[in-house]
Amino acid sequence: MSFAVERIQSHVGDVGGIPIQRSLPNRVRRTIGAWCFADHAGPATLPPDQRMRVGPHPHTGLSTFSWMIEGEVLHRDSLGSEQVLRAGEVNLMTAGHGISHSEESLTDRIHLAQLWIALPDAERERQPGFQHFATLPRLGLGGFDATLLVGEFGGERSPVPSFTPLLGMDLAAGGPVDAVLRLRPGFEYGLMPLEGEIEVAPMGHETVEAIAPGTLLYVGPGCESVELRAGAACRLLLLGGEPWPVPPLLWWNFVGREPAEMQAWALDWAREDGGRFGAVRGYDGPRIPVPPVPALRRP
Fold it and tell me: Residues 254, 290: contact at Cβ < 8 Å?
């Protein structure tokens, strides 16, 4: 069976003082399964007076998924949640109808992946919620120390819930590695390097792809396995899921379906009380104002 393989270059930016590389969304590929946003933040060491501070801002129609590799970040939200996210842990904030939150780094060193999961139609207006996961399944996969972030793999299941078939896995190796991973042919996948260089050989693809941080490799449905090789220490995320027939519409911090929704949500956040998004208590600073809504079109 033939399948697509695409190299996708990340966009370089800054969030709250932390350098980031954004792999999703992009012009070539807007989603991988329900994964609709993928930032690799750091690794970076910043002076104490320049630590990451992201003021209160709104979300709707998605779940934010934060995977901490190094450092600590304090999460606060409009539900009253206050949680420190530490290395090896996941914060899952399901915005649903609407929520707002803030993020502050508590350490000079920080390295994390910040991902969004689009909610399907039946769930995108659900009540908001927040969950913290301090322990996740670990697997040994041909020299990789793997952490199963969401979904099922190798007979293990992550406790992190999802509303669509989804996979998220962190693969770390302290030295040379050569491993073959079996994939679900009905899923599409993204291999997102976080550290080091990795050679990727999808079964049935004529070439070996070498990728490093800043390049995401997309592997379309139909691939049954992939071989991962590295000559030195490396780390990457494996993201997968069932393809969405029509990608959702993303603008600013919102995931929706129609341009008119974005305008309504922007007006809500502009209200003094935050409207459907509520208010974050305890953050010492202003909330992030809504930017002007541009002319938007459905994907």
Answer: no
